[in-house]
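Table 4 source record.
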Amino acid sequence: MQSNLAGRRAVITGGSRGIGLAIADALAAEGAHVSICGRGADTLETAREQLAAHGTTVHAAQCDVADAAAIEGYIDAAASALGGIDILVNNASGFGVGDTEEGWAASINVDLLGSIRATRAARPWLEKSEQGSIIHIASIAGQAASARTAAYGAIKAALIQYTQSQASELAPQRIRVNAIAPGSIDFPGGLWQQRKAANPTLYENTRASIPFGRFGHPEEIANTAVFLASPLASWITGQTVTVDGGQLLR
């Protein structure tokens, strides 16, 4: 099955590492032109070089998606560099943990408001596309109780609900809106690598709780994003696809 994504223009927030970079890489491999943002200049440049190997247009810029003016400026710059926007992937996360003001603020300002602001800025371009696709990266933490990460889970749940409302609102403009809820994803430098070093018991207990007996890989989320962004999913909107190796089953 062909994705037919060649020539499409995709913007991925938080795209310099982990799941975001895997999604950008998968889209570029399918022939899409991509723009990524992140906060670290060195990480962005490394990611840009990796993506450029696919031979499509690559745009990369520093941006803190918690800053409303910054995200608006980034989206405008991305649209200019790519010649428009067909696909928006809201991946950036503040990963607020703990029942603290800081934890809640991080998740609200980045995961939720960052996604809302990026969508608002990209909407005029997505409307011009006539085949626009928005993908929010949620989490299984938003689909069940999350004692260790209450703020993160609650805001991801809000993002899942927002996906449904937004899909209903934007359907007349032929813009599809879906979400992906990853389970525990492990990659070099990522959260679970940090936990493996700091709390190996938690790491092993979590791994053992997943029916497939392993953590997920960023590429497995990216494959789902490619499908949802493509014409193969042309009749799918307002949905949250759980990609967790059965983790929620237990």
